[in-house]
């Protein structure tokens, strides 16, 4: 219908809360405008929804009542019923129209409500959008602000001088204190100014210094040339003075020649040469120092690399041409590599030490270039030819004469720890296998050459340390001489011992009684392993006193049926380190220090009380005196043995020694101490 | 080439250790320390409590202090409740236990018995304390027993009878009597009040225990009032004193140098490295090896003040003193 169409049009409406009277006017104005419409929308505003609802309920009730009455009438039947029904029908139609109106009104109300909601929502959305925009802008601005705040100007990276320094140092026209103190911006500008100023000045200085340096370098060149032109002039003077030198017996030239050769020595040998010569001149005029070997070969070692490169390329070319030539086998290659590694410098230094008895110790010192160590070969010569007794074989042999000159310095291992890696590459196990050929790398030899391999910092090898060499020279020379002398003394003594005679010098006769019956029947050298196998030497081995650098001997002393075996450990440091004895007596059973306290006492008499037996310095008589004492001790032991009452017959050894007492103390010690000059025996 | 000790000194020290003999031992009155005397005249004091504690290290087995006590070997030592008495080269010296751990300790006093001989100073091999009289008996090289009053230091009596030097002494508390054994092969009993020899047993004359190839000397003695055990050249034998008869001969060949009663056992040691545990019946209960090839002295620490240090220590022909915490085995050794 037309009114429902008009209600669907969306007209902006002002919601008024006035009462009804406007209704008529509005509807008239509407109708005036749009041509006489009945506006139900306007009507809706004026009616009370509650009353409409009541009307609706009432109308429904009435309809129900009417229907019920109609139903009644219809069921009753009759003539006047139709009229009644008709009346009621008309009333019902009226009610239906009321309902329809109410329905329309309801719809209109609904629509109105919806429209209002929608409007409000629109407004809210608009505000919301505005808010978002503003927030977004705020955020953006904040970001910009932080960016601005974080901005670091390049000038802040420059390390400026401190404020105090600036004000004190900068000239007032730059520092402008009055302005800058108050204004930090100006201050910074001023400081930057000052910085620039300073840098300019320094750049200037730098240029000045560079030019100075150039000047000085030129001056040095000039002076060098001058000096190098001096050398040939001096040489000619030297030559001219030769006849004068000879005339005046001043062989500077000879020494000069030696120094000339020495210049080609490798540094360690050079240190040794210089220090030994100095020592010889200062302390030992009999020491002679010489250099042996080929100077040309030494010079050849320092050929410039270009030549060798040419050689290499030539040889490569050759190889390419003759590919049929066989390459050397792997074994030969390795052998060559080993030889190369163990190569000695062509020059060597010779030292000849002369001892008091005119025997000479010849030392030849070598330098192994690739291993950076020195070795030495030794030889002893005497004025008269020595006939070496069998047991004295190792005393003066080149391999062992200098062994353990200092304790523990056995010279069988390389002192340079870096060598081990080099050895591994070419399959060398130890330098020990090559010492006979190359010489021994004793530690004192390295020291004399100024070489030092510090254990805590193996990579810092010290080379050419003259002070080290000098500080060890005197002690080492003295030890070398003592060593040779003591070995020669032992050599002579061994010759006598092998003939069963214990040589006692006249100044040591007071240590022993006049009559000594027990005598030495055997004196032999035994290998180290044999000493270790003996049963009565176990405690010496366990105490670590029987290492493989010592020499070992077996002596046999006899009297009647008694046989005394003595196993001797001779330390290379003899005679400052005493020989050590262990005894085994075979007489009425086997007696050693483990089952006979007196055998133990006898060992003590020679091992612990050795100082009495040293004789006058340098104590080379110690060993022979110890042996003589053992003979005396055996005499005392046998003669003082208490007589066994159960056995028939006299004692095998009648007592001839004068003793105050036979036994003393809980261990029943025999009187082993000899008293001179009274000649009796007593207890310690 | 630089060493703390010169090589000669190192070798010399090693030789000294190898040839050292520890002759005597004595436990302190508090039970925590052990004094040991050697053939060089040195006395070393070991701390038993430190060596036995659970935190003991190698250094705990070394002496706390070692000092030079006598010019000759220290053959014998005993302790009173405050003093350590040591003797060897003819002199007996007294040391205060409380001072002994301090460096540079000096003897409190030294006394020399009136000897007959003048040519050689005789050694003192044995010391015996007589608590009831507060006196000390010394015996040794001059074949006499001397008794010294500990209060005044005067020598009260000299008992003569032995014909050769005296090795050992023992005290028979009940009577009181002193037993002495000597090189002459006799064990002699002396009554202290009358200062006379009351009984003599010439051990070597009895066939069951004599061993002529070893000699007749009596090296060790111990007594349990009615019983006496002695050994040396002759076999180790248990004697009934009143009747002077040998009741048990212990079957061991090696001459014994020390013997002692302990609970129901007899402990002996001598040539050979063993400490022998004997039943009174003569059976060998145990033979415990020590670390020295021959033993000269045994010491049982029975001081009531230190029950945790109750150990048996054995010393002899080496620089070591073996410590047996349980009699059955050697726990460890102290060393000079």
UniProtKB/TrEMBL annotation, chain A:
Q: What is the lineage of its organism?
A: Eukaryota, Metazoa, Chordata, Craniata, Vertebrata
Molecular-function GO terms, alphabetical: mRNA binding
One cellular component term from this protein's GO annotations in UniProt? THO complex part of transcription export complex
Q: What is its main location?
A: nucleus
Query: Source species, please?
Result: Nannospalax galili
Give me the gene this protein comes from. Thoc5
The reply on keyword Cell division is: no
Q: Where in the cell is it found?
A: Nucleus
Keywords on record: Nucleus
Q: Which Pfam families match?
A: FmiP_Thoc5
List the residue ranges of the region (Disordered). 1-43, 302-331
- Protein name per UniProt: THO complex 5
UniProtKB/TrEMBL annotation, chain B:
The record's subcellular locations are: Nucleus speckle
**Binding partners and assembly:** Component of the THO subcomplex, which is composed of THOC1, THOC2, THOC3, THOC5, THOC6 and THOC7. The THO subcomplex interacts with DDX39B to form the THO-DDX39B complex which multimerizes into a 28-subunit tetrameric assembly. Component of the transcription/export (TREX) complex at least composed of ALYREF/THOC4, DDX39B, SARNP/CIP29, CHTOP and the THO subcomplex; in the complex interacts with THOC5; together with THOC5 and THOC7, plays a key structural role in the oligomerization of the THO-DDX39B complex. TREX seems to have a dynamic structure involving ATP-dependent remodeling.
Matching entries from Pfam families are given as: WD40
**Gene that produces this protein:** Thoc6
Q: Which Gene3D superfamilies match?
A: YVTN repeat-like/Quinoprotein amine dehydrogenase
Q: Does the keyword Heme apply?
A: no
What's in the keyword line of the UniProt record? Answer: Apoptosis, Developmental protein, mRNA processing, mRNA splicing, mRNA transport, Nucleus, Phosphoprotein, Repeat, RNA-binding, Transport, WD repeat
Listed under GO biological process in this entry are:
apoptotic process; mRNA export from nucleus; mRNA processing; RNA splicing
Name of the molecule in the record? THO complex subunit 6 homolog
Q: What does this protein do?
A: Component of the THO subcomplex of the TREX complex which is thought to couple mRNA transcription, processing and nuclear export, and which specifically associates with spliced mRNA and not with unspliced pre-mRNA. Plays a key structural role in the oligomerization of the THO-DDX39B complex.
Q: Where are the WD repeats?
A: 159-200
Q: State the Gene Ontology terms under molecular function.
A: RNA binding
Superkingdom, according to UniProt? Eukaryota
Output the InterPro entries linked to this UniProt entry. Answer: THOC6, WD40/YVTN_repeat-like_dom_sf, WD40_repeat_CS, WD40_repeat_dom_sf, WD40_rpt
Q: Name one GO cellular component term.
A: THO complex
Provide the family line. Belongs to the WD repeat THOC6 family.
């Amino acid at each position: 219908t037309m009114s429902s169409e008009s209600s669907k049009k969306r007209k902006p409406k002002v919601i008024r809360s006035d009462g009804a009277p406007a209704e008529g006017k509005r509807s008239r104005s509407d109708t005036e405008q749009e041509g006489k419409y009945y506006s139900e929308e306007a009507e809706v505003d004026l009616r009370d929804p509650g009353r409409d609802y009541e009307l609706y309920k009432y109308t429904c009730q009435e309809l129900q009542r009417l229907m019920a009455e109609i139903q009644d009438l219809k069921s009753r039947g009759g003539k006047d019923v139709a009229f009644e029904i008709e009346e009621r029908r008309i009333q019902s139609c009226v009610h239906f129209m009321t309902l329809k109106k109410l329905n329309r009104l309801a719809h209109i109300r609904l629509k109105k409500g919806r429209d209002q909601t929608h409007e409000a929502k629109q407004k809210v959305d608009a505000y919301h959008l505005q808010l978002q925009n503003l927030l977004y802008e705020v955020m953006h601005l904040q970001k910009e602000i932080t960016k601005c705040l974080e901005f670091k100007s390049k000038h802040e990276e420059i390390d400026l001088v401190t404020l105090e320094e600036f004000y004190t140092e900068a000239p007032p026209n730059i520092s402008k204190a009055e302005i800058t103190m108050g204004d930090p911006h100006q201050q910074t500008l001023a400081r930057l100014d000052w910085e620039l100023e300073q840098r300019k000045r320094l750049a200037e200085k730098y240029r000045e210094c560079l030019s100075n340096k150039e000047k000085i370098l030129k001056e040095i060149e000039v002076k060098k040339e001058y000096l190098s032109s001096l050398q040939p002039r001096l040489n000619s003077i030297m030559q001219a003075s030769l006849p004068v030198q000879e005339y005046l017996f001043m062989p500077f030239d000879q020494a000069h020649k030696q120094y000339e050769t020495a210049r080609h020595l490798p540094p360690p040998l050079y240190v040794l040469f210089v220090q030994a010569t100095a020592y010889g001149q200062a302390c030992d005029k009999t020491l002679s120092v010489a250099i042996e070997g080929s100077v040309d070969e030494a010079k050849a070692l320092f050929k410039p690399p270009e030549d060798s490169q040419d050689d290499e390329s030539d040889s490569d070319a050759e190889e390419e041409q003759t590919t049929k030539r066989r390459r050397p086998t792997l074994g030969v290659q390795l052998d060559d590599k080993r030889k190369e590694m163990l190569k000695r410098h062509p020059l060597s230094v010779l030292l000849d030490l002369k001892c008091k008895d005119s025997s000479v110790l010849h030392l030849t010192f070598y330098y192994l270039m690739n291993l950076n160590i020195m070795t030495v070969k030794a030889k002893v010569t005497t004025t008269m030819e020595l006939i070496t007794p069998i047991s004295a074989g190792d005393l003066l042999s080149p391999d062992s004469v200098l062994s353990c000159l200092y304790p523990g310095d056995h010279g069988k291992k390389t002192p340079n720890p870096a060598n081990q890696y080099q050895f591994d590459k070419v399959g060398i196990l130890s330098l020990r296998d090559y010492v006979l050929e190359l010489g021994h790398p004793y530690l004192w030899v390295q020291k004399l050459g100024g070489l030092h391999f510090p254990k805590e910092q193996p990579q810092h090898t010290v080379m050419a340390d003259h002070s080290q060499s000098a500080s060890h020279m005197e002690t080492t020379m003295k030890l070398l001489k003592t060593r040779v002398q003591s070995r020669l003394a032992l050599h002579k003594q061994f010759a006598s011992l092998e003939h069963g005679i214990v040589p006692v010098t006249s100044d040591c006769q007071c240590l022993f009684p006049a009559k000594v019956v027990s005598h030495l029947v055997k004196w032999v050298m035994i290998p180290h392993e044999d000493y270790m196998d003996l049963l009565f030497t176990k405690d010496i081995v366990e105490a670590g006193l029987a290492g493989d650098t010592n020499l070992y001997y077996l002596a046999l002393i006899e009297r009647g049926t008694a046989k005394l075996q003595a196993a001797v450990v001779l330390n290379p440091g003899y005679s400052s380190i005493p020989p050590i004895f262990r005894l085994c007596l075979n007489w009425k059973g086997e007696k050693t220090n483990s089952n006979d306290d007196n055998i133990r006492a006898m060992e003590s008499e020679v091992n612990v009380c050795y100082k009495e037996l040293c004789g006058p310095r340098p104590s080379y008589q110690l060993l022979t005196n110890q042996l003589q004492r053992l003979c005396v001790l055996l005499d005392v032991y046998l003669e003082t043995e208490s007589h066994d009452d159960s056995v028939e017959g006299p004692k095998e050894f009648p007592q001839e020694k004068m003793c105050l007492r036979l036994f003393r103390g809980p261990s029943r010690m025999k009187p082993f101490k000899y008293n001179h000059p009274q000649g009796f025996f007593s207890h310690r | 080439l630089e060493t703390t000790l010169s090589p000669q000194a190192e070798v010399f020290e090693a030789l000294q250790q190898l040839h050292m003999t520890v002759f005597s031992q004595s436990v302190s009155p508090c039970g925590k320390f052990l004094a040991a005397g050697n053939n060089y005249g040195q006395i070393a004091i070991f701390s038993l409590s430190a060596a036995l504690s659970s935190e003991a290290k190698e250094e705990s087995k070394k002496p706390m202090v070692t000092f030079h006590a006598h010019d000759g070997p220290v053959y014998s030592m005993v302790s009173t409740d405050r003093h350590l008495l040591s003797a060897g080269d003819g002199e007996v010296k007294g040391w205060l236990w409380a001072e002994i751990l301090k460096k540079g300790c000096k003897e409190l006093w030294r006394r020399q018995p009136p000897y007959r001989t003048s040519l050689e100073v005789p050694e003192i091999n044995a010391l015996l304390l007589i608590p009831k009289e507060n006196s000390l008996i010394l015996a040794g090289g001059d074949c006499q027993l001397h008794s010294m009053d500990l209060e005044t230091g005067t020598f009260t009596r000299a008992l003569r009878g032995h014909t050769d030097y005296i090795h050992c002494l023992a005290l028979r508390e009940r009577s009181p009597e002193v037993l002495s054994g000597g090189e002459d092969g006799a064990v002699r009993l002396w009554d202290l009040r009358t200062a006379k020899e009351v009984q003599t047993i010439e051990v070597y004359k009895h066939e069951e225990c004599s061993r002529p190839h070893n000699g007749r000397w009596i090296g060790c003695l111990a007594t349990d009032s009615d019983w006496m055990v002695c050994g040396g050249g002759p076999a180790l034998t248990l004697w009934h004193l009143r009747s002077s008869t040998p009741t048990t001969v212990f079957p061991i060949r090696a001459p014994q140098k020390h013997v002692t009663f302990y609970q129901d056992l007899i402990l002996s040691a001598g040539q050979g490295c063993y400490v022998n545990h004997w039943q009174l019946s003569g059976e060998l209960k145990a033979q415990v090896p020590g670390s020295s090839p021959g033993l000269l002295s045994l010491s049982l620490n029975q001081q009531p003040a230190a029950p945790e240090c109750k150990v048996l220590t054995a010393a002899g022909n080496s620089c070591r003193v073996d410590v047996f915490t349980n009699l059955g085995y050697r726990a460890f050794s102290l060393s000079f």
